[in-house]
Amino acid sequence: MIVSPSSRRLKIIVGIAAVGLIATYVHVRPRWNQATFDYARDYYQSVSSYFGSPVYNNTLYTEGNEGMVSRYYNSSSPCASFPNTDGVLLVMKTGATEAFDRVPTHLLTTLSCLPDFLIFSDMEQQIGPYHIYDALAEFEESAKAHNADFDLYRDQKECPVSQKSCVDAKRDGQKAWNLDKYKFLPMMEQTWRLRPGRDWYIFAEADTYVFWANVIQWLKKESRLNPREKLYLGSRSFIGGTPFAHGGSGYIISGTLLKHLIEYHPGVVSQYNVKGANECCGDLMLAQALEEYENVKIRQTWPMINGEKPSTLPYGPGHWCEPILTMHHMNAEEISTVWQFEQTRKTDRTLMIKDLYEGLIKPKMQVSRQNWDNLSDDVCYLNPDPQAQQRADGHSKERQKKEDEMNDVEKEAWKSWENCARVCETEDVPDEGEWEREGIFGRENESPGTAIDTEIAEDTSPSDAAARKAWKNSMNEKKRNRTCFQYRWHEEVCCTAKSFKLGAPKTEPDNSDLKAKWVSGWHLKGINDWIDAMGECTKPTWKTPD
């Protein structure tokens, strides 16, 4: 069949047009999609990313700590930077009245990264797959039969439903405290039987937070301690002249010491079970047993092993460049918050006490708070009236500054919270800019005046770099030696502190008496001056146990 030339030309034109349309579609389609549906695609990707991965806004990220923590919290690999805890065992102590309030948060945070641990209580319980051992299960019946301290122990076992339904933790708090002291030594015996041969045993309460990265770095590297020696480490307290490691702060016992105590002295537990009826505290009895049977006393490890928490730590001299190993009195929310802080820090360097301040506390500091107690109690100023002195509590009177040692501001400090706030201001040191504005620097250009003027000009001349540096060093030294950082005023009692703490709220008084209210304040200039004068902590100040 012969195709006419006109028909052939038509087919060629149609083919070229089709190719052109296809090319145009291929070229224009991406732009068309981008211009029309970009917002929809971005929205979809953001939503799918949010629900498809464990990355969330970091609730700790706020103005003032942007340099400390990341803006987002990626919880996909919580144990990625967790240290190797081989040879170290955590032993946690709790009570049946509190276990389900406190332990689950630990299981969701630090304990989730530990390969092994033990939990002891005054009742055998189960939290999900985790078993809680009864530290008192083998306690001699004769020792507890007529001992009222074990009333709660018996009541717990007789409860046919949940402990919350049978036991009022607030009402029975003292009963729980009385029972707690009997757990310490039986817990040692069961720990060695269940997990013998570890290098180190760390004992902590359910309201104790352990900074594992710091603990492992210190035990295995920085401390140079030998677990083959008999060692008992903690925060030292005293009762009746006997030193002991405060149980709430946590304490560390070497494997060798635990082995000797349990294997070489089989009667120690039963002896102290009976002795407990006449002693106040289990941590004290443990110290007594270690000294009696092993001739070992506590070695002080404070402030690294610490009985405070972030809001009550006394930041300042002695609590700054030191690494932190443990904290106490931590509720479930605080435990979760500190874990989150560790997870979202922008650095993996050793966590020091100053980091807790800068990351968690500094953003919450302000000039003053009503109905608040920031725990200022180092130096107090009281109304000198004899009746007011009688009303004051004993602690404030003990810390009262002698009148002949007071300056004019301090003598008026008790009259109002405004007067109280001025006490710390008297320690302020002028900044270089203030001296420039006052014209102290630059007087060498003026006509010679008095001998004093000439001396100041010579000492502070900006052309004399050495003199200016000496002046700055002198001012920095005064800033570092500051002894007043904050105040608290209540019922005509003004107290100041040699450190800075956040504290906690106080209940607003029912009456409208201005004297009855609590007012706390922070001298932010003095705090920031001290921090600036301290400079960076070039290296952590690890505590050598003594």
Lay out the secondary structure.
Layout lengths: L4 H48 L2 E3 L14 E3 L13 E6 L5 H10 L8 E5 L3 E3 L2 E5 L6 H4 L6 H8 L4 H4 L6 H8 L3 H11 L5 E6 L3 E2 L1 H11 L9 E3 L1 E4 L2 E4 L5 E4 H9 L4 H8 L6 H13 L4 E2 L25 E2 L4 H13 L8 H9 L6 E3 L1 E2 L5 E4 L3 H6 L2 H5 L9 H4 L5 H9 L6 H7 L12 H10 L4 H16 L5 E5 L2 E5 L6 E2 L13 E4 L1 H11 L12
Parallel strand pairs: 3-4, 3-7, 4-6, 9-13
Antiparallel strand pairs: 1-2, 5-6, 7-12, 8-14, 9-12, 10-11, 15-21, 16-20, 17-19, 18-19, 18-21
Concise summary:
The chain is of the alpha+beta class and 546 residues long. It has three domains: 88-361, Spore Coat Polysaccharide Biosynthesis Protein SpsA, Chain A; 368-427 and 482-534, no CATH class; 437-478, no CATH class.
